[in-house]
Design goal:
heterodimer; A: alpha/beta; D-Maltodextrin-Binding Protein, domain 2; nine-stranded mixed beta sheet; 9 helices; B: mainly alpha; MetI-like fold; globular
Chain lengths: ~260, ~270
């Protein structure tokens, strides 16, 4: 009995604390932004968006940025199917287009960063890859991202610009899974974003692709008007486009458009 | 046995049960309706006749049947050992072989890559000795699919072995039958229905496997792209094709599960 009464008392205290916390949270903060902002971002933006998230949360106490990382095309399908998303950052304008066409974002999407492509090989480059020509070698294990995924489309553009017909062994569903196989040494080479090579921190090595063959990935961002937190979405997009946001992006090898 | 049950078992279920059961049916039916509503019926035949679909279908058929065969050959003895032998660490072994049931398939695939890949713990010596690379080949698909689906067979068969009346085996042995004969002539027929059920569960899991396959074996049409991988890829580039493929998978699975169950698997 005594125990039970104590429990009730504790509950009441906990409830009181929760209410006070909630009140504080709703009037605190440096701006009007509150609650959660749900951000869907391309796999290749993973590392830099985690950084942007913590910087944004530090600047806006009480705000929780919830990241949903995945292949751009898959994220788009989720949004088209009505997923509650506030901001969508895609690895290509093409992937973004159906969102804009469907009237799910206000106006057009904004290109907020560019990223060039690079050849990624396992640490130590065991297969002695020199350049794009090696991608035509049937003996080597070569991976690209799949058709329909931005890094796959860019990778194929690079190949056709270089005039190489790649001997592909696997079409990976997103850039992360491609990197995992390169890191593990299971693939001899693949085409990823330069930023991925930098983020992978020596677990993979990068080989530059000559400018004549290289392609710039255009990352675009839009806030989704159907999302639950339009105000927050706007402020987050502004933050990504701000000088500070761009500085964080540059730190990870992204180029300002 | 069921014939002897009193008639009362046939009577109407409690109302709560009817409501909840109906809710369950709706829960499984709704996604199927969602697929049917979005199906591009007029293009269905041409969508399903493409080489991507045919390649994936053939590969899925081979890999899933191979997984059932391997799972049966290895899984039945394993289930027997787990059910009949008392040894230290038995629950640990059981946990280990059933782990793929709870492990996210992608994690299973990555673990396979680190173990059996070209640079893996076992894969590297294998590659150096024979030049064999499991990932990015049909062998990789079979390994991934078997890893994920075999636990279903082990679980079912072990359960059957534990529940069967072992006095029959004892009687056969006392009449002079050898251990192998006892297993073949007494044990196997008695667990037959459960074994068949286990094989079908294994096959169902194998045909739908995605995560471990894509992570361990990769994704290349005609080499490693099974039906679920083709669906996933099509979802990103051609939604109509993805829906057509999904419908095909549902049709295959329903046919197999319904037909087999009615024929052999009254016990499932």
């Amino acid at each position: 009995m005594a125990r039970r009464r104590l429990r009730n008392g504790q509950l009441r205290v906990a409830f009181g604390v929760a209410v006070i916390g909630f009140l504080l949270a709703s009037c605190g903060g440096s701006s009007d932004v509150s609650d959660e902002i749900r951000v869907s971002a391309a796999s290749s933006l993973g590392e830099v968006f985690i950084e942007l998230e913590s910087a944004f949360e530090a600047a806006n106490p009480g705000v929780d940025v919830v990241l949903n990382l995945g292949g751009s095309a898959l994220l788009r399908e989720q949004i088209l199917a009505g997923a509650p998303v506030d901001v969508f950052a895609s690895a290509s304008a093409d992937t973004m287009a159906p969102i804009v066409d469907a009237g799910l974002s206000e106006g057009s999407a904004t290109v907020f960063a560019q990223g060039f492509l690079a050849i990624a090989v396992p640490a130590g480059n065991p297969a002695n890859i020199d350049g794009l020509v090696d991608f035509g070698n049937e003996e080597l294990l070569i991976g690209l991202c799949d058709i329909g995924v931005p890094c796959g489309e860019y990778g194929r553009q690079v190949m056709s610009r270089a005039g190489v017909k790649p001997a592909i062994d696997t079409n990976e569903p997103n850039v992360r899974s491609l990197l995992t196989k390169i890191e593990a040494g299971e693939l001899d080479a693949g085409i990823v974003y330069m930023t991925d090579v930098i983020a992978a921190n020596a677990r993979v090595e990068g080989i530059e692709i000559p400018d004549a063959a290289n392609v710039a990935a255009e990352y675009s961002i839009a806030f989704i008007t159907e999302g639950p937190n339009n105000e927050g979405a706007k402020v987050f997009v502004e933050f990504v486009l701000s000088e500070f946001g761009q500085m964080i992006l540059a730190g990870q090898g992204f180029v300002t458009p | 046995m069921s014939r002897r049950q009193p008639r009362i078992a046939q009577s109407r279920p409690p109302i709560v049960f009817s409501v909840l059961a109906a809710l369950g049916v709706v829960f499984f039916l709704l996604p199927l309706i969602g697929l049917l509503v979005r199906t591009p019926w007029s293009d269905l035949v041409s969508l399903l006749a493409s080489d991507v679909v045919i390649d994936a279908l053939v590969l899925s058929a081979i890999a899933s049947v191979a997984a059932v065969i391997i799972s049966t050959i290895v899984g039945v003895p394993l289930a027997w050992v787990l059910a009949r032998l008392e040894f230290r660490g038995r629950s640990l072994v059981r946990g280990l072989v059933l782990a793929p049931l709870v492990l996210p398939p992608v994690v299973g695939g990555a673990a396979l890559l680190f173990a059996l890949g070209r640079r893996g713990v076992v894969g590297e010596p294998l590659y150096d000795a024979t030049g064999l690379v499991l990932p990015f080949s049909i062998w990789g698909v079979v390994v991934a699919v078997t890893f994920v689906s075999m636990p279903f067979l082990i679980l079912t068969v072990e359960g059957a072995l534990r529940n069967m009346d072992s006095r029959f085996e004892g009687a056969a042995a006392s009449l002079g039958a050898g251990r192998w004969t006892v297993f073949r002539r007494v044990t196997l027929p008695m667990i037959g229905p459960s074994l068949a059920a286990g094989m079908i569960l294994t096959w169902s899991r194998a045909i739908g496997e995605f995560g471990a396959t894509v992570t361990f074996a990769g994704n290349l049409q005609g080499e490693t792209q099974t039906l679920p991988l083709a669906v996933f890829v099509a979802l990103e580039s051609n939604r109509d094709a993805a829906i057509a493929l999904s419908l095909l998978m549902v049709a295959i699975s329903l046919t197999v599960l319904v037909l087999l169950r009615d024929r052999w698997l009254r016990s499932l």
